[in-house]
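User: Here's a protein and a ligand (iron/sulfur cluster). What would the complex look like?
Assistant: Let me lay out the input and then the predicted complex.
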Amino acid sequence: MAGIYIHIPFCMQKCGYCDFYSLVGLSDKKEFVVALCDEIRIRKEELQREPIQTVYFGGGTPSVLHIKDFENIIASLKEVCDIAELLEFTIEVNPDDINLPFLDDLKRIGFNRLSIGIQSFNDRILSFMNRRHSSSEAFNAVEMSKKAGFENISIDLIYGIPDMTLAEWKKSIDKAISLKVQHISAYHLTFEPGTAFYKKLKQNIFREVEDKQSIEQYNVLIKAVTKAGFDDYEISNFCLPGYQSKHNASYWSGYSYVGLGPSAHSFAARTRRWNISDLKKYINNIKRGEVFYEQEILSDIDVYNEKIMLGLRTKNGAEIRDLHSMDKKMVQLFNEKMQKNIMLKNVFTQNGRLKVCKDKKILTDQIISDFFVV
Ligand code: SF4
């Protein structure tokens, strides 16, 4: 088994760009933790099916929970499965939630990797995105985490932000590198329906950055992180040698995982399952023994599209033999698309794998769309 993902659906305020499922405030926290522990027991068989290698607390904002809450959740996990030998145990934290005693406690209860949601080291941009923290809090959060003994720290950054200059972006990257973290994730801002930013975009309050700027910002990022010794192992993820996110790498390799908590996704063989994105319903349905998830069986086309999407986003690429094991019609379609994209110098083959050409990385999503079968 790839691992366990646990979704903590609370935030103290909503960031302008975010469409992850979360509620502002902690009013249902107690009932949520009880329901989550019940879900762990309900899904005992799934959790025991394969050895668990990684556990990832994401959200929402896991760092708004109390240490006692984590202890309860971890105790429930230990009741049903073996998590004594985890390769990676990650928690996402927000810079303004953490202090040294809290970090010491996280370490004590077993977390060995922190993913810090920094997004930018520029106060104007942080406030534009409605983040709660300042640039100096972000800086202190990393320093404190190191002091607490964390040796595997990832920080998140966002680019493609309206009105962010190239100089501002460079400064954020340089700051991130100067902090000597082991991993950086950098995502291009997207405007998702339902978010405050999407609304503002539709009202013409601001505009998306032009492709030229996106490419410039991505190129600056790649140049800086690779110069600093980071491996661009996935289109948005960069690590020092040996510090790939094991949890995410196994998603990309198509291993199975169990997602717990509202809106969390699970995957095994050809089944994709997702918990309802409604905290009250999630709590009540678990309490009443009613179904709290939906699921679908992936078609051949879904499986093919997923392999393409996950594979081509990584430096390692997609395994051609694996794609050739699909039915005849799919293989024919894939071969045609592969030949066309090789001719266009978008992709190349190496050791049986199909990879995106270095100078076309910024176009990865477009290249993937071209490979998709609908
Ligand atoms: S980005 Fe993180 S902190 Fe902000 S609303 Fe989304 S989940 Fe909450």
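Summary: The first helix runs from residue 29 to 42.
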